[in-house]
Amino acid sequence: MKRGKLGxxxxxxxxxxxxxxxxxxxxxxxxxxxxxxxxxxxxTDKLITLGKRGDLHARRQAxxxxxxxxxVQKLFDTLAPxxxxxxxxxxREIKAGFRRGDAAPTVVIEFx
Length: 112
What we know:
This protein is of the alpha+beta class. About 55% of the residues lie in helices and about 20% in strands.
């Protein structure tokens, strides 16, 4: 899966993605830039697939990535059963115009 470097060192980039994915799982939607959106979408879809698997190892893998134990619980108890019959494509990107200040193109990522 191709992800841009976003002008950050690898540790900062990983922390950014972990934070965005955790926020998306907890809140249901996140506004971010077009550059970050494909990576966040792919990582979230991977975590929901882990949630659908539902075993202890999958739960530990999700807990190692997500920043909040509440997000892990929501992933396994709410989101995974909701998408049990769906074969992927759990999130969508909607263009939301341009950010005020630097005119960066923004995207809303939300669950389907």
